[in-house]
Amino acid sequence: MREQKIADHLPQESDTAILIEGLPYGSSALDGKADREDVYIARIAPGCICCSGNLTMRVTLNRLLRRKPGRLFISLANAEHLASIRAFLTAPPYDQLLDLTEDIMLQGTP
User: Fold this and answer.
1) Which of 85, 59, 63, 87 is nearest to 74 (CA)?
2) In this structure, what DSSP letter does residue 79 have?
3) Most exposed: 6, 7, 91, 98, by fewest CB within 10 Å?
4) At CA 41, angle to CA 35 and CA 43, rounded to 5?
5) Is residue 50 within 8 Å of 88, Cβ to Cβ?
6) What is the pLDDT of residues 53-97, one digit of tens each?
7) pTM for this prediction
8) Dist CA 41 CA 64 (whole Å)
9) Distance of CA 40 to the CA centre of its chain
10) Are 75 and 33 within 8 A, CB to CB?
11) How many other CB atoms sit within 10 Å of the CB of residue 95?
């Protein structure tokens, strides 16, 4: 469901990086997008990516940002720590690299 939301918001042609926490249940709406040269998808293990998974998120995010994508999607398995993730992304060095936009939330997600 959350990967479908990202697929629905992908621009036709634009360097786009997608950081996804966790694996899809079955097939993913992004399966066909991974073949595009302008889309790069990275997955990290599920868990609290602002706490125990912080290093993994930081390393993966840095790798994605080296590609200088025009757009970056970060898909969280749980929106519980969304405020912490946004604070992390607005602190140095990411504050100089990213312009955060509004969150894309699934229906029924707080």
Assistant:
1) 85
2) G
3) 91
4) 135
5) yes
6) 578 888 999 999 999 999 999 988 888 888 888 998 999 999 999
7) 0.84
8) 9
9) 11
10) no
11) 11
